[in-house]
Write a structure and sequence with these properties.
The protein is α/β, with parallel strands linked by helices. It is built from 16 helices and eleven strands. Strands 1-7-6-5-4-2-3 form a seven-stranded mixed sheet, sandwiched between helices. A four-stranded antiparallel sheet has the order 8-9-11-10, covered by helices on one side. Helix 4 crosses helix 13 and helix 14 runs parallel beside helix 16.
Amino acid sequence: MKADHHPLEPRREELEHWLAVLSKFALDEVDALASGPAVGTVGRAGLDIADAVSQPIGEQPLTGGVEAVTDLLRQASSATFIPPSPGYFAYVPGTGLFASALADLVSGALNRFTGISTAAPALCRLEADVIDWLARECGYGETSGGVLLSGSSLANLSAVITAREEHFAADGDYRRAVTYASGQAHHCVEKAIRMAGLPPANVRRVAIDSEYRLDPEDLAAQVRADRAAGLQPFLVVASAGTTNTGALDPLPAIADVCEAESLWFHVDGAYGGAFVLCDEGRRLLAGMERADSIALDPHKGLFLPFGTGCLLVRDAEKLRNAHSAGAHYLRDLDALDRSREAPSPAMYGPELSRSYRGLRLWLPLMLHGAAAFREALAEKLRLAWRFHAGLLRLIESGVPLECVAPPHLSTIPFRLVRGASEALADWNARNAALIERINAQKRVYLSSTSLPVADGEAVTLRVCVLGARTHADHVDQSLADLATAVG
């Protein structure tokens, strides 16, 4: 070994070889999405693949080098759900735009510290530009701000903490603090409330209507009852698109209750909030601009790779007050001119060391333009109604299905019709078998949920249209596979 050789500093020609092999693998995987299955090998067979690719961590590089490593990655990636597939309608799809993958490559290679703007003022400015753009699109004004996080779990947690500090910072006594959300709210909301140190017993489940939307009248009644009991209501969480059914809570009416009762109004728009970028979505999401805070997941509605979330707050100072902190070892930063700095992400969220998420949004917006995202989101709303119309045609033709609720955004819940006197367990088993038959064809991939009925919880299938690569022919394929599976 030469004295000037360092194992963690490969020469450029070796790095270029690694890059060529791995980039070809990545591009081949992207190319395969168009004609490949919507789901890979999972379950027991997937575990067999996991066992096969598991390698001991050796003292020397893996025999075979980057080609052998890539082969293991190819095998491992086959044993997965495939969210970027155009036929993936399960959960809430994530496209993983290639431009964002390039952003990750660049930001990882640069490896600049972007927690505090002083350390990277221009890079942080690019991230702030993206946050300002999102805030304006959501209807916020000059006092607003936000932070990019790993996803809506952290975004909702930071929103809860900000609301908590706004209402209870003076004494830190949360024992009488009461929060409100419907039973259709994402489970990360209740988790966030618990992690924020608020009493789980003080989480109120607000009634829902026939389309699974939060009932503002029941909300107002519960708030009045809690105040009368000596408790302190302070936070309402509404959904701009629930995961279960895509239900869009009546945001203007909820905002009215929050204003009348001086409650913090938070909108969990992780799934549906990004639809505000297109004209129809902005109309549907009217009232969201009245929220005190909004959680968004660009890895859903902006088609980016997983791990890209956002919290926006109407009053940025309230977000900063809840999250800012200092340290003596940062004193050297004050010797620099900081007068025109963009906000430091570390002062508005829980992370100090963090990945440079801003490039994940900035680069695709620069390369594709905002209009491309608006057009794609408008298309997804149209495709949801295309599926809904096709579902109704099947029902009219005698196929024993029922549409549980019309699409509020881009999710459509449906299931087999329950037979007369059919036991709930038998009905659920039939619907579970139906989704297995649909997914077994592997051209599309659907997921299911459970929704309340008179005697329990009913297994309900759902289609969520949110993949950038998903177009009309893929929706039509899902309808054809559904018709085949029903038989």
